[in-house]
Design goal:
The structure holds two protein chains of two kinds. Chain A is built from no helices and eleven strands. By secondary structure, chain A is mostly beta strands. In chain A, 37% of the residues are buried. Chain B has one helix at residues 97-100; strands at 5-7, 10-13, 19-24, 31-37, 44-50, 53-57, 65-68, 75-79, 88-95, 107-108, 112-116. Chain B starts with a strand and ends with a strand. Helices cover 3% and strands 48% of the residues of chain B. The mean pLDDT of chain B is 92. The chains are: A mainly beta, B mainly beta. The A-B interface holds A 1-2, 30-31, 33, 35, 40-45, 48, 50, 88, 90, 92, 94-104 and B 4, 31, 33, 35, 40-45, 48, 55-56, 89, 91, 93, 102-111, 113.
Amino acid sequence: SQQGEEDPQALSIQEGENATMNCSYKTSINNLQWYRQNSGRGLVHLILIRSNEREKHSGRLRVTLDTSKKSSSLLITASRAADTASYFCATVTGSARQLTFGSGTQLTVLP
Amino acid sequence: DTGVSQDPRHKITKRGQNVTFRCDPISEHNRLYWYRQTLGQGPEFLTYFQNEAQLEKSRLLSDRFSAERPKGSFSTLEIQRTEQGDSAMYLCASSHIKTSGRDNEQFFGPGTRLTVL
């Protein structure tokens, strides 16, 4: 079962604009991670934020975490056509420390 | 290339046939995971190995599915008597218990896309 839900399901923007994706989850977490997946390919880890952190930056990425609302957001600034991909949030759960993924946001950046 | 590799990348089979996929994790990664991803959804956890021991299996892993990791290196995932509902992308991921710890950042392979006709 999916732990989280991403919003929106699909997002289309112009190159240079910012893109914001939101993720909600159900259970308490140790950390929340964001992954990118290009069409039909494997996932690439983007950024991780721990439950005791509220905001984190990595290059053009900014992640926030609100544990009281069980939600996170991913902001991509100055988007590029190469950012076109599906973006998934994932939480580490279970004794196996497996990732539980949301349903993803499909981002399209138009040149 | 030192990333996670999977073979084959694509597999088309007829219903009822058996298929086997292989995953080679990053060298020295002692954790290995299998996930399944259907179109438009996020990956779902199937099973987990720590070294050669299979420590957890999801309820998604029916008795037609079996996974092994002999010698704690590469892993295989076999599906017997395939059904059309098995059509999906099968992803393998690895991590190292010491370097990733509780964070468990996982490194994914490119996946094997299975189509059951």
